[in-house]
Amino acid sequence: SSALLDDKEKIARAQSGPDIHCGYCGARNPASAEICHQCGANLAEGEARAAGRVVGAYGASAPAEVQCQACGMSNPAAAHHCVRCGAPLGRPEAAAKPAAIPAPSRRGGGGMNTVFVVVALLVVALAGWFVVSLFRTSDMTATAVQARWELSVNVMGPVAVNESAWRDEIPDDARDIACQPRVRRTSNSPQPGAEEVCGTPYTVDTGTGVGKVVQDCQYRVYGDFCRYTATGWGVVDTVAQRGVGLSPQWPSPALAAGQEIGERRERYVCVVSDGQKEYSFELRSRQTYEQCQEGSRWKLEVNALGSVVSAERVQ
Predict the structure, then answer these.
(1) N or C: which end of the chain has fewer CB within 10 A?
(2) How far is CA 196 from the centre of its chain?
(3) How buried is 169 (Cβ within 10 angstroms: 0-12 exposed, 13-18 middle, 19+ buried)?
(4) Looking at the predicted structure, is the pLDDT value of residue 75 above 80?
(5) Other C-beta atoms within 10 Å of 270: how many?
């Protein structure tokens, strides 16, 4: 942490530029100096102190100063070299924390833990048995007793749709508009009507032994984000037709002005029996469905739940 300076002389020195380390003795000198104050050497071959490093968060109170063991000069807490002689500043080592004493282990309750372990193992075993049983299948042969079909057609046309967009992107025919402010974008420079959001102030090393307090800010630009109803293109109605037999018929819906036929869907089911139980399964194409003739023989693979996993007609 650091504190704000109010000494005009120190402020002027901080604004003059990074200090210069003497190329001969290493002492630190103000940026305006031409000759080293310690050894008298020309500072033309000196090296400017690095600047721009973040040295810590800004604090309202000044931290304790560090006294140089070589010359006795008091230095800022963040300094690593003495501002007078350039000697490295030592740091008192933090006192070692006493080792934590491990808490005594609790005894007893071992029997309860054993019960929990046994119950958990039983649950895992039962779950494994259920999964294995679920995927176990059996083969059988059955006879087709019925063929069912369902054909449906979507009717497309103008429909009301709910949409959302920024206010300046809403179409002219929108209705039932409801808006609320929302952050639309952020900017690094001030914007009219924007909300300023700033981070925690921090201190940057200027290279003079004095830090500069910096605070990064962004500006939130708000806009009206709206939900509205508009006219779009969608499914107006779905007309379905169902029946049995091998001659399915597509429905013929009556279309109003501005409407047209959309997506078609077809579903074919074959029902078979092994003499004791009936099984049903879907067929993917009309060509395969036409094989589900009454009395035809089918080879089935059935799982433990009684569902048909696969079916193939026996020639």
Answers:
(1) C
(2) 25
(3) exposed
(4) no
(5) 25
Rounded alpha-carbon distances, angstroms, from residue 83 to 21, 29, 307: 10, 8, 86
Write the DSSP symbol of residue 70: T
- For 216, half-sphere exposure in the C-beta direction (CA atoms, 13 angstrom radius) is 8
**How high is the pLDDT of residue 136?**
80
**CA dist., res. 47 & res. 124, Å (int):** 71
Choose among 177, 182, 168: nearest CA to 220. 182
- Nearest Cα to Cα of residue 302 among 284, 276, 267: 276
Q: What is the pLDDT of residue 6?
A: 55
**CA–CA gap between residue 297 and residue 286 (Å, rounded):** 18
Distances (CA, A) of 74 to 26, 50, 56, 132, 162: 18, 21, 20, 79, 70
pLDDT tens sequence across 256-277: 999 999 999 999 999 999 999 9
The position carrying tokens 């209705």 is 175
Contact between 234 and 162 under an 8 Å Cβ cutoff? The reply is no
pTM comes to 0.51
Strands (E), 7-68: 20-21, 28-29, 47-48, 54-57, 66-67
The Cβ of residue 248 has, within 10 Å, a number of other Cβ atoms equal to: 20
**Rg, Å, the chain Cα set:** 42
- List C-alpha distances in Å: 297 to 275, 290, 293: 12, 13, 9
Q: What's the rounded mean pLDDT across residues 16-39?
A: 78
- Residue 211 in tokens: 């830090």
Confidence check: pLDDT of 111 > 50: yes
